[in-house]
Design brief:
Strand content: under 5%
Number of domains: 1
Largest sheet: none
Order of helices and strands: HHH
Low-confidence stretches: none
Structural class: mainly alpha
Length: about 120
């Protein structure tokens, strides 16, 4: 009698997703002040949106890895941890994008006030 055992698949997806989610969480604390300063100086959302996309990719990879590991009988601990980290990273990135929009609005108001004061001084 031949016994066919299927090796667990999806481990690579889970590991990749976990690493990306970990990078997204750890480096978020470096990226977020840079994004806010960039927004205050008139910059855009590009870095915060890139970080959001990285977090989404990590979450999707962990989810796909967890589904494959579940279907083939593998252990899903790393995939689940990556999934949780990815969701937290998505929430943090959404909060960052909101903060960037607030910084842009505040900087825009301050800039308009400065120009109005300059016009008043010239008249």
């Amino acid at each position: 009698m031949e016994e066919t055992t299927q090796k667990p698949q999806g481990k690579g997806l889970a590991i990749t997703g976990f690493i990306l989610a970990l990078v997204a969480i750890v480096f978020f604390w470096i990226i977020s002040p840079i994004c806010v300063v960039q927004a205050a100086l008139g910059g855009g959302y590009i870095l915060s949106v890139i970080w959001l996309v990285l977090s989404l990719i990590a979450t999707v990879l962990c989810f796909m890895g967890m589904k494959k590991l579940g279907a083939t009988g593998g252990k899903k601990g790393l995939a689940l941890t990556g999934l949780i980290l990815g969701i937290v990273a998505i929430i943090l990135c959404a909060w960052l994008i909101y903060g960037v929009s607030q910084a842009q609005a505040f900087a825009g108001d301050q800039l308009q006030d400065a120009f109005q004061q300059l016009d008043n001084l010239q008249q």
